[in-house]
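SEQUENCE AND FOLD
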Amino acid sequence: MDNTGSAVERKANQAHMAVDDVAQRAADKAGPAIDRVAQAAHQTVDKLAGAAVPAAQWAMQSADQLRQQQDELLESCRGYVRERPIVVVGVALLAGYLFGRMGR
């Protein structure tokens, strides 16, 4: 009985070693492939980040230019109102009268 137990234990140990060997060979083969995939993913992320930076800078510059143009237009309107207040009030009254007539 003891002989049978040790034979079973020996076979189990051999099976365990065979599985370990197969697992190690699979890991050895898969390791470089995983490294290549990870490197490709890093390169892709770097390229995307490199493309996103100029786009973000362009958007910020465009927003700044738009704000500057808005400020210039607003200041121009304010200057016109300061120079010709009576004309502006007259145009506003006329526009209000016309909108009121169209609303009826």
